Automatic annotation (TrEMBL):
<feature type="region of interest" description="Disordered">
    <location>
        <begin position="245"/>
        <end position="269"/>
    </location>
</feature>
<dbReference type="GO" id="GO:0000139">
    <property type="term" value="C:Golgi membrane"/>
</dbReference>
<dbReference type="GO" id="GO:0005886">
    <property type="term" value="C:plasma membrane"/>
</dbReference>
<keyword id="KW-0443">Lipid metabolism</keyword>
<dbReference type="GO" id="GO:0005802">
    <property type="term" value="C:trans-Golgi network"/>
</dbReference>
<dbReference type="GO" id="GO:0005789">
    <property type="term" value="C:endoplasmic reticulum membrane"/>
</dbReference>
<protein>
    <recommendedName>
        <fullName>Sphingomyelin synthase-like domain-containing protein</fullName>
    </recommendedName>
</protein>
<comment type="similarity">
    <text>Belongs to the sphingomyelin synthase family.</text>
</comment>
<keyword id="KW-0472">Membrane</keyword>
<feature type="transmembrane region" description="Helical">
    <location>
        <begin position="138"/>
        <end position="157"/>
    </location>
</feature>
<feature type="transmembrane region" description="Helical">
    <location>
        <begin position="79"/>
        <end position="101"/>
    </location>
</feature>
<feature type="domain" description="Sphingomyelin synthase-like">
    <location>
        <begin position="141"/>
        <end position="212"/>
    </location>
</feature>
<dbReference type="GO" id="GO:0047493">
    <property type="term" value="F:ceramide cholinephosphotransferase activity"/>
</dbReference>
<keyword id="KW-0808">Transferase</keyword>
<keyword id="KW-1133">Transmembrane helix</keyword>
<dbReference type="GO" id="GO:0045140">
    <property type="term" value="F:inositol phosphoceramide synthase activity"/>
</dbReference>
<dbReference type="GO" id="GO:0033188">
    <property type="term" value="F:sphingomyelin synthase activity"/>
</dbReference>
Length: 283
């Protein structure tokens, strides 16, 4: 439940910041961009392609993160994994908010250009209107450009699977898909090329730094023995079962109960067998 609350709170505050910068956005002529010269424009009718690729990446990672509940290969803990992912996303989103509030660029997307009614927002009449975030406001926002939020999520997901995933072929395909998504975002004129470039090195640096500071995830595949319940005296049930059957795993117990000359030595009255043999032979 706390994980869900953190995720929703992070999404809300980022959406609130993105809506706030839309009030400051002023449409203008498109900036010179090398990506716009090199990549053909997809157009409004094909702008959904980049969103489709992003949705595929998001759903694929989400479903994979819950595979320990279905498959027997339980290498990761889903909750701990998502706590780690949320730490990456939160840090990147905070940097993104600081960046796009520092400088507002004229949006290259179709609904942010000059002549579009949604390019600017009228000031809110009351504070309640400013705090309510509608889905349309998220999809048709302007001004929150540097750097791409889509690339933040995609890079965090792919880097996480790169570290904790098992299939090498899927890892290679995932990186290829993210590269293709980068070109599609620019071709759809949703971001400038600088938004994509900054996202690539910023997200990777942030994830590397935080991943180094956070404790490593425990390996669930080898942690079954650690989950055995303990009894009051600190022994596991397995050890108590061995004791009841006379099969103690303690080497000290075995040494104290070693038979010598047909007698069981115990309670501190132990005499080394070799010493007794030597004493009898010397008589």
């Amino acid at each position: 439940m706390s994980l869900y609350i953190r995720r929703e709170a992070s999404k809300y505050f980022h959406g609130l910041a993105a809506r706030g910068v839309h009030y400051f956005h002023r449409p203008g002529p498109l900036l010179q961009d090398v990506g716009f010269f090199l990549l053909p424009e997809l157009g409004q009718n094909k702008a959904y392609i980049s969103e489709t690729v992003f949705t595929f990446v998001f759903l694929s990672f989400f479903l994979w993160s819950f595979h320990p509940f279905i498959l027997k290969s339980k290498k990761i803990y889903t909750v701990l994994l998502w706590c780690r992912v949320l730490a990456f996303l939160s840090a990147c989103q905070i940097l993104r908010i600081v960046t796009f509030y520092s400088t507002q660029l004229p949006g290259p997307n179709y609904h942010c250009r000059e002549g579009s009614k949604s390019a600017t927002l009228p000031p809110p009449d009351n504070i309640l209107k400013a705090l309510i975030i509608l889905p349309r406001g998220i999809l048709y926002g302007c001004g929150d450009l540097i750097f791409s939020s889509h690339m933040i999520f995609s890079l965090v997901f792919v880097r996480t699977y790169q570290k904790y995933g098992m299939q090498r072929f899927i890892k290679q395909c995932a990186w290829l898909i993210v590269v293709i998504q980068s070109f599609l975002i620019v071709a759809a004129r949703k971001h400038y090329t600088v938004d994509i470039v900054v996202a690539w090195y910023t997200v990777n640096l942030v994830v590397s730094f935080i991943d180094h500071k956070l404790p490593e995830l425990p390996d669930r595949s080898g942690g079954a023995a650690l989950l055995l319940p303990l009894s009051k005296d600190g022994r596991t049930k397995e050890e108590n079962f061995k004791l009841l059957n006379g099969n103690s795993g303690d080497p000290i117990d075995r040494r104290q109960r070693t038979p010598a000359n047909g007698k069981i030595l115990e309670n501190g009255n132990t005499v080394h067998g070799d010493a007794m043999m030597n004493g009898e032979l010397g008589r």
